[in-house]
Amino acid sequence: MKLQEFHAKTLLKSFLREKIPFPDFEVAETPEAVFDAAKRMGKPVVIKAQVLVGGRGKAGGIRLANSPEEAKEKAEAIFQLRIKNLPVKKVLVTESVDIAEEYYLGIVLDRRNRCYTAMACSEGGVDIEELAARSPEKIVKYSINPTEGFPPFLARKICFSAGFPAFLVPSIASIFSSLYDSMLHFDADLLEINPLVRTKSDRISALDCKMTIDDNGLIRHAELLTYREIAEEDLLEREAREKRIAYVRLEGNVGIVGNGAGLVMCTMDAVKAAGGKPACFLDLGGGSRAEVVRSALEILLKDQNVRSIFINIFGGITRGDEVAKGLIQVYNELAPKVPIVIRMAGTRSQEGLQILQKTPFITARAMQEGAKRAVELSEGG
Ligand code: GDP
Ligand code: MN
């Protein structure tokens, strides 16, 4: 789950007791409220669109204003924007800072190396992506050993290698190290301060904050659920969550359904191996009854990218005949236009396959065979 900048800043402020120097801010939902906030602050402010995408600066979603009147005007313009197709409903009004230099600090969950990786760069700001593509060597990376953690002495090493001014290294390192503590505490998989700036008066200030929480960790952070931005999530993923189905939307066009996460993963691999691209990961879970099968297909059929569906069921507690009945019921109600391939094994799979004879469902005995057929069908074959 991605957090809005103001949520991330609020969270870190309270958790770290002001260890990260975020400039003061208020959140506003109307140009009038922006005017009032700017007036209260009594100095130049920056108005920042709160949307869950990067590149707000380049999209015109971040504007400087020298007076409350100007703040109101700029806010009017920002509320009109759509940034990467998202409407702007809230803005952050924050004290403007005189920037001398922009730096980048980030920590991400690094799946390849199975650890958190810390990243630092003395050339931060809105062009960090281009820099990463053009001169990746300028971004210093360090894989954090979980038993060692990321104490300030390690963070200092990284900060020196990144070329931060020596007199600022102790304070930047302590921020860096506390970012790591926060990630562990909140089960975050990304935490980024870009830019972290040196001000013209040689202070450090954290202007932006991006934070993503691992959804699987949310069970331990019920308080964060109120931060979820319903409007900006994938609607199908939301529907699945409400129906208690484990569903992750992907970019391909073969809808994949199975019972049990391991089997679904395997099925995705089989589809990939057959040259196809999964449109989703969808796990029916154990004991899948007709309603669950129905809800799952309802979700898949709403996804415009799905060209074929491959259902792979291993019957344990789940019974093949239950699944088959569910499928036929769905077929009668939803009349799906995309072809559906189904492979079943285990408990009552013979009965299940029997029920599916003489229906439009395409049955397969083996997983590879089913995957191959589903991929061909997704390509119109
Ligand atoms: P992003 O584009 O979504 O990452 O938004 P950021 O919060 O990182 O802001 C983008 C850019 O706006 C920063 O890199 C700064 O150059 C500029 N900016 C943000 N806050 C301030 C500020 O208080 N003063 C000044 N002068 N520039 C700012
Ligand atoms: Mn930024």
Structural description of this entry:
- The chain has 381 residues and is an alpha+beta fold.
- It contains 12 helices and 19 strands.
- The strands form 4 sheets. Strands 1, 8, 9, 10, 11, 12 and 13 form a 7-stranded antiparallel beta sheet that branches. A 6-stranded mixed beta sheet has the order 14-16-15-17-18-19, with helices on both faces.
- Helix 2 packs antiparallel against helix 3 (68-80) and helix 10 packs parallel to helix 11.
- The mean pLDDT is 93.
- The structure holds guanosine-5'-diphosphate and manganese (II) ion.
Spatial separation of the terminal alpha carbons: 38 Å
Number of helical segments? 12
Quaternary: single chain
Report the biggest beta sheet as strand number plus sense, adding barrel if it closes.
Answer: 7 strands, antiparallel
What is the compact description of this entry?
The protein is an alpha+beta fold and 381 residues long.
Structural features:
binds guanosine-5'-diphosphate; binds manganese (II) ion; 381 residues; 6-stranded mixed beta sheet; 7-stranded antiparallel beta sheet
Topology at a glance:
Elements lengths: L1 E2 L1 H12 L8 E4 L2 H11 L3 E5 L12 E4 L2 H13 L1 E2 L2 E2 L3 E5 L3 E12 L4 E7 L6 H7 L5 E5 L7 H11 L6 H18 L1 E12 L4 E3 L3 E4 L21 H8 L3 E4 L4 E5 L2 H13 L6 E4 L6 H13 L5 E8 L4 H15 L5 E7 L2 H8 L5 E3 L2 H12 L3
Parallel strand pairs: 15-16, 15-17, 17-18, 18-19
Antiparallel strand pairs: 1-13, 2-7, 3-4, 3-7, 5-6, 8-9, 8-11, 9-10, 11-12, 11-13, 14-16
Helix pairs in contact: 2-3, 5-6, 9-10, 10-11
The site of manganese (II) ion has 2 residues, from loops.
